[in-house]
Design goal:
Blueprint (H helix, E strand, L loop, with lengths): L1 E5 L16 H11 L7 E8 L3 H13 L7 E3 L6 H4 L3 H9 L4 E13 L2 E12 L17 H26 L1 H13 L6
Parallel strand pairs: 1-2
Antiparallel strand pairs: 2-5, 3-4, 4-5
C-alpha cells in the first residue's frame, strides 16, 4: 500500500519558463526517486488550507450528516461525491494518479500554528487497482477498500503521534492539549 500527502503550492505565482515544473512532473520525479510508479500510491491526501470555498463545502457535508469534526467517508453512490470531485483537490489527484477512485475520506487534524491550535481538514482519495485487458487486477492482492482505509488511518495516526512527541519536548502542556483534542475528535474550546 502506498500513500502520499500533496501540499499545494502557489505554482501559478512562479513566472512561466521552460524549466517550470507542474505538479505531475514534480510528483513523478519524487515517485521515481522512491523507486515506485506514480500509480502505486493507493491513497492521496491534501490538506485544505486557505481555501474558503472548500472549507464551506466540507462544513455543508458535515452539517448534512449531522456531524461535527468527525471523519466523513464519501462513496461514489453518496450525493456529496459530485461536490468533492468538482474541487481542485480532485483535479490535482487525477493529474498524478490514473486509477479510478474508490472512496473519499475527510478528516480533521489539529496542528500548532504560531501560538494556537488550528484545525485542518484533510481530503483523502482512495484509488482502486487498475485492471489489465483480461479484467484481472494488476496488483498482486485484491483490493479491499475498508482494509486500505484502516491502514491509511493507522499511518496518519502514527504520523500525528510522532508530531505530538516532538512537540512534547518543546511544550508538554500544549502537546497534551492537542493530544486530548485528537483523541476526543472534538474541536478545541474557543
Amino acid at each position: 500500500m502506498g500513500a502520499a500527502t500533496i501540499y499545494l503550492a502557489n505554482n501559478d505565482m512562479e513566472p512561466e519558463s521552460e524549466s517550470k515544473l507542474g505538479l505531475k512532473d514534480i510528483y513523478n520525479a519524487l515517485a521515481e526517486k522512491r523507486h515506485c510508479q506514480p500509480d502505486d500510491v493507493k491513497w492521496l491526501a491534501f490538506n485544505v488550507m486557505n481555501d474558503e470555498e472548500t472549507d464551506k463545502l466540507i462544513r455543508l457535508i458535515r452539517r448534512g450528516r449531522n456531524l461535527g469534526s468527525q471523519q466523513v467517508r464519501i462513496l461514489p453512490s453518496d450525493s456529496e461525491w459530485d461536490m468533492i470531485i468538482k474541487t481542485k483537490y480532485y483535479t490535482q489527484a487525477t493529474l498524478v494518479n490514473r486509477r479510478p477512485l474508490d472512496r473519499i475520506v475527510i478528516k480533521t487534524h489539529y496542528r500548532l500554528y504560531e501560538d494556537h491550535i488550528m484545525p485542518i481538514d484533510r481530503i483523502q482519495f482512495s484509488f482502486r487497482n487498475l485492471e489489465n485487458a483480461q479484467g484481472k487486477d494488476e496488483a498482486s492482492q485484491p483490493f479491499n477498500g475498508d482494509e486500505q482505509e484502516a491502514q491509511m488511518m493507522a499511518l496518519y495516526e502514527e504520523q500525528e503521534k510522532k508530531e505530538i512527541e516532538k512537540l512534547a519536548k518543546i511544550d508538554p502542556e500544549l502537546a497534551q492539549s492537542i493530544s486530548d483534542i485528537m483523541l476526543g475528535d472534538e474541536a478545541p474550546a474557543p
